[in-house]
Amino acid sequence: MGQQYSADLREWVLLVCERHEGGPELLARRFQISRACAYNWVRAARLEGRRVAKPHAGAYQPNWTRRV
Q: Which InterPro entries match (predicted)?
């Protein structure tokens, strides 16, 4: 799994992209994040209108540890 980035960094990347100061590849180099991450953030903002990370679903819990 990759590195977790702050919500502030994500917001900065999206703001700079919206001001047309570069595409995802340039932003990835500028903010030192992966290209895939930059593409995914921009795509999610454009298509879904989502500017924050999805909530974490939690860890897998084996059947024998679940309480009924």
A: Homeodomain-like_sf
Global pTM value: 0.74
Q: Which residues are within 8 A (CB) of 52 and not within 5 positions of it... i.e. 6 or more apart? A: 7, 10
Tell me the per-residue pLDDT of 12-27, one tens digit each, with 9 for 90 and over.
Answer: 999 999 999 888 899 9
Q: How far is 44 from 22, CA to CA, in rounded Å?
A: 17
Q: Using CA atoms, how far apart are residues 18 and 40, in angstroms rounded to an integer?
A: 15
Share of the chain above pLDDT 70, in %: 82
Contact 49, 43 (CB under 8 A): no
Distances (CA, A) of 30 to 7, 17, 44, 59: 17, 11, 20, 33
The helix/strand/coil state of 56 is coil
